Amino acid sequence: MTGLTSKNIAELQQLMAELGEPKFRAKQVFSWISRGARPEEMTNLSKVLREKLATLHFGGARIYDKRISTKDGTIKYLFELEDGNLVEGVLMRYKYGNTLCVSTQVGCRMGCAFCASTLNGCVRDLEAGEILSFVACAEKDVPCEEGRKRSVTNIVLMGSGEPLDNYENVVRFLQLVSAPEGMNISPRNISLSTCGLVPQLRRFMKEAPRVTLSVSLHAPNDTIRNTIMPVNAAYPMAELLGAAREYAEETGRRVIFEYALIKNKNSEKKHAEELASRLRRMNCHVNLIPLNHVEERNLMGVTRKDAEQFMGWLTDLGISATIRREMGSDIEGACGQLRRRVLEQQEGNA
Ligand code: SAH
Fold first, then answer.
1. What is the model's pLDDT at position 324?
2. Does 130 contact ligand 1 (Cβ within 6 A)?
3. Does the CA dihedral 44-46-48-49 come out positive or negative?
4. From the CB of 197, is ligand 1 less than 6 Å away?
5. Of the four, 35, 59, 316, 337, which is 20 to 30 A from 173 by CA?
6. In angstroms, what CA-CA distances link 191 with 87, 101, 174?
7. Which atom of ligand 1 is nearest to the CA of 162?
8. What 3-state DSSP class applies to 317?
9. Tell me, what's the pLDDT at 256?
10. Mapping DSSP to helix (H, G, I), strand (E, B) and coil, where does residue 148 land?
11. Whose C-alpha lies nearest to ligand 1, atom 4?
């Protein structure tokens, strides 16, 4: 059973009816949860109701550990769930506000060759309310700048896990986090990143809030993509690019393609040319990522100069591209790295 933090207002109204409480309590509880309060802190409710709520499964998170980058102020969080599982989140500070990167699963089962999140497989899906709790934790942790309503203004679903492999909970999270009675973060300020589960992506297009779509492409063709992303065997690039193109057309929003440059793999001129030809006439942008070296993985990144050259090849061919700013490289900012380090330490101490 999912926890109190995962319930929407209609479900909370139903719960209040079952508990013999007036309907308006539902919005009060929803608003408290959105601010990261636990039942005992919901001070405008009766003591009896607070006690009743405290007996239910809550589904919250707390900050277990945090590291702050001395380079750029990026904060890497390790959140602890009620069952003791640990998941990562990263808060990136920009001029226009703060972007929180959240995880959607404990671990991941997609098996990408360059990614640390997937090394131990997927332990479990996160509940919608658990993901919401990460946002509430970060919001409480970081003071809001003067003149702003919130400190976390943007969210990216780019932490551990494949969001479309946890479809129902992720769509519910998007509905909860964008609800006007709660955090009220617009879908325009939210990005979802997927490795390319095409059937789920097509369903998402029809029923979910219209967030920005990022697709982790990392290759210009199936031959290369097959060697680094097992998901490509099930949903080859033509299908994935077809669905992405449709998403761009249907939503009128630019689709972002993530492309990690890997030495001797996908970073030559011919790869840029092939990529450009496949993305032609699509409303899209390529985000070139300097590969974060993961100790357990035997893949090398490219130099800054090579990344700039690759970007030049793409832009000369009419494809909009930029190189992602590396943030928090001193605090193991890449997916799954911090959690792994802590789990290893715990194992070492046991
Ligand atoms: N499962 C989703 C979201 C999580 S990964 C997805 O695949 O998109 C978030 C992004 O980080 C993806 O683009 C992923 O490919 C990238 N990534 C993972 N490991 C990386 C590494 N070592 N260096 C650079 N980017 C990496």
1. 82
2. no
3. negative
4. no
5. 337
6. 19, 9, 10
7. 1
8. coil
9. 96
10. coil
11. 158
The answer to whether 288 touches 304, Cβ cutoff 8 Å, is no
Residue 215 near residue 257 (C-beta atoms within 8 A): yes
* Residues 292 and 329: beta-carbon distance below 8 Å: yes
Active-site pick, 21, 88, 139, 332: 88
How far is ligand 1, taken at its centre, from the CA of residue 158, in Å?
7
- Supply the pLDDT for residue 350: 44
What local confidence, expressed as pLDDT, does residue 160 receive? 94
Check residue 27 and give its pLDDT: 97
C-beta 106 within 6 A of ligand 1: no
* Protein residue with least CA distance to atom 12, ligand 1: 216
Residue 331 alpha carbon to ligand 1 centre in Å? 17
In this predicted structure, what is the pLDDT of residue 334? 57
Ligand 1 pocket test: which of 100, 231, 258, 326 has the largest number of ligand atoms within 8 Å of its C-beta?
258
Q: What is the DSSP string of 5-70?
A: GG--HHHHHHHHHHTT--TTHHHHHHHHHHTT--GGG-TTS-HHHHHHHHTS----EEEEEEEE-T
> 3-class DSSP state for residue 210?
coil
- The question of whether 335 is a catalytic residue gets the answer yes
* Ordered mean pLDDT values, 10 residues apiece, the chain (350 residues): 92 97 97 96 96 96 94 92 96 89 96 91 97 97 86 95 98 98 96 98 96 97 97 98 97 95 95 98 94 79 94 98 76 57 56
